[in-house]
Backbone:
C-alpha cells in the first residue's frame, strides 16, 4: 500500500509542497477576517472604555481638587470671620470698660464734690455751734459769777 507523502507513517516530510502556500493563505485570510470582525471592534471598545474611564477619573480628580479648594477657602473665611468676631467682641468689651471707667470717674468726682460740700456745711455748722456755745457760755458764766459774788458782772470781768 502506498501512501502519499503527507500521510506516510514513519516518514518525515522535509520538502515543502503546495499545501504550505495554501495553509499560509488560509492563516492570512483568517487573521484579516478576525482582525476586521473581532480584534478591531474589541480594541475600539476597550479604547473608548479606557478613554471614558480616564476622562471620568480626570473629571473626578478635578472635582475633588475643586472641593478641596472650596473647603480650604471655607475654612479660611471661617477663621477670618471668627477672628473678626473676636476683634469686634474685644473692641466692644474695651469700649464698655472705658464707659464704665468714665462713669466710675464721674461718680467719684460727684462723690468728692458732695463730700467737700458736706464738709463745708459741717465746718460752718461747727463754727456756728462754737459761736453759739461761746455766747451761751459767757451768759451762763455771767449768771454763775453774779450769783456767786452776789453782784452783777460785766463782760470785761469774765475774760
Residues:
Amino acid at each position: 500500500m502506498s501512501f502519499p507523502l503527507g500521510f506516510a507513517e514513519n516518514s518525515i516530510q522535509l520538502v515543502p509542497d503546495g499545501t504550505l502556500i495554501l495553509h499560509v493563505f488560509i492563516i492570512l485570510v483568517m487573521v484579516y477576517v478576525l482582525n476586521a470582525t473581532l480584534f478591531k471592534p474589541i480594541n475600539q471598545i476597550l479604547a473608548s472604555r479606557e478613554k471614558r474611564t480616564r476622562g471620568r477619573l480626570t473629571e473626578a480628580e478635578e472635582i475633588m481638587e475643586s472641593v478641596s479648594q472650596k473647603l480650604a477657602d471655607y475654612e479660611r473665611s471661617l477663621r477670618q470671620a471668627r477672628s473678626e468676631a473676636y476683634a469686634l467682641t474685644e473692641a466692644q468689651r474695651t469700649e464698655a470698660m472705658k464707659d464704665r471707667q468714665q462713669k466710675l470717674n464721674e461718680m467719684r468726682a460727684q462723690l468728692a464734690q458732695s463730700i467737700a460740700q458736706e464738709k463745708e456745711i459741717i465746718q460752718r455748722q461747727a463754727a456756728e455751734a462754737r459761736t453759739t456755745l461761746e455766747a451761751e457760755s459767757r451768759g451762763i458764766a455771767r449768771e454763775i459769777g453774779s450769783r456767786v459774788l452776789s453782784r452783777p458782772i460785766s463782760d470785761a470781768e469774765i475774760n
